[in-house]
From TrEMBL:
Keywords: Ribonucleoprotein, Ribosomal protein
A Pfam cross-reference name: Ribosomal_L28
Protein name: Large ribosomal subunit protein bL28
Coiled coil: none
């Protein structure tokens, strides 16, 4: 599963792991991606999305119909 939110588009970020002696090695910060299934009344079916926690909060605030309409506008597949 890709570490990318389908609603917000947030993906992995990169930085440095800094040890006690201050040596630096590359590391990756992955977002908290959850697989959620929603019933979408406008489509008349269930839709499974890969969402970050902020994406879940966005759906709670705006509603699944509004979010799915925006995703369809920008050509997202699900």
């Amino acid at each position: 599963m890709a570490a990318r939110c389908q609603v917000t588009g947030v993906g992995p970020q990169f930085g440095n792991q800094i040890s006690h002696s201050h040596r630096r090695t590359k590391r990756r910060f992955d977002p908290n991606i959850q697989k959620k299934t929603y019933w979408v009344p406008s489509l008349g079916r269930k839709v499974t999305l890969n969402l970050s926690v902020k994406g879940i909060k966005t759906i709670d605030a705006r509603g699944i119909d509004a979010v799915v309409a925006d995703m369809l506008k920008r050509g997202e597949k699900f």
